[in-house]
């Protein structure tokens, strides 16, 4: 614990004196650590298997007489994800692979003097796979043709994508401290890229469940809300976007399961690398793993600093320096084959400046944010026999977010704000798994969690023109500070502002108002019980499940949720057909939930706070349908395609506060979303790996809206296409590597057709923007071009438009059928390097060089989005790194 305190003290020393140092872990965290210590001291909770969603493959290799074969080479591989493990059998002929990500694999055994053994394995259960292999004498070998790869298609009814560390370690990650989000966006076909490492999964924002070694995490993962597990701590990532099993709840548009790296049974291995790139970006990464037959230890440590930490509201970054540090540890221990103990610990912190616009630079705005997180997750597995085991995972995780205003609060434009909030999530999850032959794979479990929320927030308007009470005859804001109510306008010779937001007038500091101060606290209690069975009947596979959730928070509810998915394998054609139905209970977003549940319909901006009865955000109820197929195309290509329909009552979204990093959850009356996704993958062929994803999403929401602060566009329409809606997105990734850790090259092509930009449906709305906002989208009228300091107030020329937003032709705009959209963009990234610069055996030097946004495309992620504001895609940047591995 002293090392963690020293670490955070070092991190905090980089802050200005208005930042604070990390506090000690709460009593709950210390209690969990005491429990961990007692498990070591009072009784061995050991292991010979893998924890959580990972599997184990073990067995014994013998000759025809039954005698063990030592030093036989055993391998497990998947040439789509590039996963590969090798081991040598012991003197007793035994071998074991632990921590195997769920997938299909090709299994091989090769021993001198014996015939090679090949078979295909599917790992979809934590119950260990035990193999008894008898090798024939080489002289008895007959001439046979053996397929040396695992099957291209999986018969599972769930639509999903998989990527392994060997593949994603060479992908370009453009978001500082949000590498996991980048990998999900690049590898999953149903995901639309958003700014600051966010993404929209199947039309939803922040409706993702993350499972890390069977620890459920449903709160938002990103550098604005929390801290992410580092990529060099992850072995594999699986994203499920259709046919969600009953095991997963809370937020199920996308379920991402990650298996972390382990040192169990491995010789010492590790790496250290340093990178430097554009915008003064520095990355340092280190990892170390080692272990024995009964224990293992793995560490990962990362530090980064950049002058473009967040995606900026201007093409050039202003006031955007940030840094991130994290430490991850995974410990495994077990003296026997019937028990397993596992412990994950992570501590992390990021600090960053809030990017400024040109007017905020002029005003001297200096807003900052710091996020500190820790996570402690012990687990235990008890094996009762060859077909059943019990998994128990406890966890405590906390995110503390501090948002700091400028020292001179009137320099903050158009408002000043401060925030100090904590989100502490703790609980336990227990599963009993049972495998009966090849027909049944049963899991029964329960999950109990508490999420403790504490929120402190203040706000005051500092721009007299943002919410004027009165307008002059020309419709311009009147800044007279004595005019505080609409009834005073006529007597002063003015007109009342028809777009006045009455809820903000008491907090307008330019009119004698005071800061809006808020404190809130809540304890969100959730209990879930579930049962599921994967049934194999010949060519049919059925996933049947039932889940029950009880939600006791600011609002309350219960829901019984049936889940069903079916697939049929047409073996001769290499085809798998699948359909699925999921009834799910979507819980409210926890970040700033207490305040947002108190502001009522339309949020604080529409109401005098406390003047109207508020309705807390309610859990959502969703019905989702999927239909798709998986098709092998020859021996090296596989196509996966899926179509989804989602109907949600009480659909969640976010409300962004100006250009800050503060968000508030909101709730729509209902939503309708549908779309398709596909992925064409190439099995690794002579060092070449590649895939292409395609996706299309229609995202429609229906009012009224509840909660939030709503400072963006007025939400007064019955149905809108929100900015999660995109006609087409695609990613093409190609990687080539020479054998024996030789030189490699990687290429990424990302296309986005452009998300909805509802703030500028027509010319009148563009003319109503500020000068800087017009300049951001490249507004022009004839020969006149808007600049950050010179707006275009009238436009009579037919030759008008914007460079970065596609606005519908006059008279054709429709919020549902023809909304304005951000312009399409093609982004290209290239990377080259080598994993063995000097061709050495044990200690290898690594070198890499990357160019991001090769064409230097100027493009927007979004513009004046109610959900996320305005953000530019990063311009062309360079990155070079040197490292050492052993």
Structure description:
This protein is mainly beta. It is 7% helix and 50% strand. The protein is built from eight helices and 47 strands. The strands form nine sheets. It has a 22-stranded antiparallel barrel. It has a five-stranded mixed beta sheet with strand order 8-14-15-12-13. A four-stranded antiparallel beta sheet has the order 3-2-5-6. A hairpin with a 6-residue loop joins β32 and β33. The longest helix has 16 residues, at 27-42. It is globular, with a radius of gyration of 28 Å. Mean pLDDT is 89; it is low at 1-49 and 143-147.
Secondary structure blueprint with pairings:
Elements lengths: L1 H11 L14 H16 L12 E8 L10 E6 L4 E6 L5 E7 L2 E8 L6 E7 L5 E6 L24 E6 H4 L10 H9 L3 E3 L5 E3 L2 E2 L2 E5 L2 E3 L16 E9 L11 E7 L8 E9 L3 E11 L3 E12 L15 E12 L5 E15 L4 H6 L4 E18 L2 E17 L10 E22 L3 E22 L8 E2 L23 E2 L19 E22 L2 E13 L3 E15 L4 E12 L6 H4 L23 E14 L3 E20 L6 E23 L2 E19 L12 E3 L4 E12 L5 E10 L10 H5 L3 H6 L2 E3 L2 E2 L14 E3 L2 E2 L14 E2 L2 E10 L9 E9 L7 E6 L3 E4 L4 E9 L1
Parallel strand pairs: 1-7, 12-15
Antiparallel strand pairs: 1-4, 2-3, 2-5, 5-6, 8-14, 9-10, 10-11, 12-13, 14-15, 16-17, 16-47, 17-18, 18-19, 19-20, 20-21, 21-22, 22-23, 23-24, 24-27, 25-26, 27-28, 28-29, 29-30, 30-31, 31-32, 32-33, 33-34, 34-35, 34-36, 36-37, 37-43, 38-39, 38-40, 41-42, 43-44, 44-47, 45-46
């Amino acid at each position: 614990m002293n090392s963690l305190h020293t670490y955070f003290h070092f991190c905090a020393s980089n802050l200005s004196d208005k930042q604070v140092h990390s506090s000690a872990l709460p009593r709950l965290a210390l209690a969990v650590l005491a429990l961990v210590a007692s498990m070591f001291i009072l009784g061995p909770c050991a292991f010979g298997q893998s924890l959580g969603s990972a599997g184990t493959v073990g067995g014994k290799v013998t000759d025809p007489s039954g005698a063990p074969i030592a030093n036989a080479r055993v391998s497990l591989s998947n040439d789509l994800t590039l996963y590969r493990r090798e081991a040598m059998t012991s003197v007793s002929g035994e071998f074991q692979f632990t921590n195997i990500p769920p997938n299909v694999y090709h299994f091989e055994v090769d021993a001198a003097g014996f015939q090679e053994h090949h078979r295909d394995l599917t790992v979809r259960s934590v119950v260990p796979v035990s193999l008894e292999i008898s090798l024939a004498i080489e002289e008895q070998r007959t001439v046979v043709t053996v397929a040396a790869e695992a099957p291209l298609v999986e018969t599972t009814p769930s639509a999903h994508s998989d990527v392994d560390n060997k593949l994603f370690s060479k992908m370009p990650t453009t978001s500082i401290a949000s590498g996991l989000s980048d990998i999900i966006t690049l590898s999953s076909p149903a995901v639309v890229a958003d700014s600051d490492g966010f993404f929209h999964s199947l039309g939803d924002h922040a409706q993702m469940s993350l499972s890390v070694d069977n620890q459920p995490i449903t709160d938002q993962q990103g550098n604005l809300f929390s801290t992410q597990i580092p990529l060099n701590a992850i072995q594999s990532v699986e994203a499920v976007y259709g046919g969600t099993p009953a095991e997963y709840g809370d937020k199920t548009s996308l379920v991402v399961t990650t298996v972390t790296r382990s040192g169990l049974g491995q010789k010492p291995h590790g790496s250290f690398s340093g990178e430097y790139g554009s915008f003064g970006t520095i990355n340092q990464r280190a990892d170390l793993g080692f272990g024995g037959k009964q224990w293992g230890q793995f560490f990962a440590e990362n530090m980064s600093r950049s002058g473009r930490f967040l995606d900026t509201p201007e093409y050039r970054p202003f006031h955007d320096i940030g840094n991130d540090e994290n430490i991850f540890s995974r410990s495994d221990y077990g003296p026997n084959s019937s028990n397993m103990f596992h412990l994950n610990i992570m501590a992390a912190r990021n600090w960053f400046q809030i990017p400024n616009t040109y007017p905020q630079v002029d005003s001297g705005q200096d807003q900052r944010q710091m996020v500190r997180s820790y996570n402690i997750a012990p687990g235990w597995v008890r094996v009762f026999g060859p077909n059943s085991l019990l998994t128990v995972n406890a966890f405590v995780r906390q995110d503390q977010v501090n948002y700091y205003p400028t020292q001179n609060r009137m320099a903050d434009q158009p408002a000043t704000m401060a925030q100090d909030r904590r989100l502490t999530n703790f609980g336990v999850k227990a599963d009993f798994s049972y495998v009966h032959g090849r027909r049944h794979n049963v899991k029964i479990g329960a999950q109990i969690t508490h999420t403790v929320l504490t929120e402190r927030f203040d706000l005051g308007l500092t721009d007299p023109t943002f919410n004027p009470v009165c307008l002059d005859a020309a419709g311009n804001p009147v800044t007279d500070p004595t005019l505080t109510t609409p009834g005073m306008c006529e007597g002063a010779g003015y007109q009342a502002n028809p777009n006045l937001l009455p809820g903000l007038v008491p907090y307008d500091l330019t009119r004698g108002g005071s800061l809006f101060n808020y404190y809130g606290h809540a304890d969100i209690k959730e209990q879930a019980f579930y049962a599921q069975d994967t049934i194999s009947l010949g060519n049919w596979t059925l996933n049947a499940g039932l889940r029950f959730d009880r939600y006791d928070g600011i609002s309350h509810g219960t829901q019984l949720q049936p889940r069903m998915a079916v697939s049929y394998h047409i073996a001769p054609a290499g085809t798998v057909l699948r359909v699925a139905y999921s009834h799910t209970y979507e819980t409210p977003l926890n970040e700033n939930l207490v305040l947002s549940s108190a502001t009522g319909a339309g949020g604080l901006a529409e109401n005098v706070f406390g003047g109207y009865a508020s309705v807390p955000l309610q859990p959502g109820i969703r019905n989702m349908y999927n239909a798709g197929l998986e098709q092998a195309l020859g021996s090296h290509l596989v196509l996966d395609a899926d179509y989804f329909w989602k109907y949600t009552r009480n659909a969640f979204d976010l409300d962004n506060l100006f250009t800050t990093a503060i968000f508030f959850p909101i709730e729509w009356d209902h939503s309708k979303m549908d779309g398709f996704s596909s992925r064409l993958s190439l099995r690794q062929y002579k060092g070449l790996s590649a895939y292409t994803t395609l996706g299309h999403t229609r995202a429609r929401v229906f009012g009224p809206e509840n909660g939030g602060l709503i400072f963006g566009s007025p939400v007064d329409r019955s149905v809108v296409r929100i900015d999660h809606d995109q006609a087409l997105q695609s990613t093409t990734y190609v990687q080539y590597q020479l054998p024996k850790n030789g030189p490699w090259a990687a290429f990424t092509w990302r296309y986005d057709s452009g998300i909805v930009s509802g703030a500028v449906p027509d010319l009148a709305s563009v003319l109503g923007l500020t000068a800087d906002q017009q300049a951001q989208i490249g507004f022009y009228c004839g020969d006149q071009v808007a600049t950050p300091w010179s707006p275009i107030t009238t436009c009579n020329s037919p030759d008008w438009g914007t460079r970065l937003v596609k606005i519908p032709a006059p008279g054709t705009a429709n919020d549902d059928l023809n909304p304005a959209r951000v312009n399409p963009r093609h982004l290209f990234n290239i990377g080259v390097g080598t994993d063995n610069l000097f061709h050495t055996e044990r200690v290898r030097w690594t070198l890499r060089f990357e160019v991001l946004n090769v064409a230097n495309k100027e493009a927007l992620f979004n513009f004046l989005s109610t959900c996320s504001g305005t953000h530019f895609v990063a311009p062309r940047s360079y990155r070079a790194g040197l490292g050492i591995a052993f």
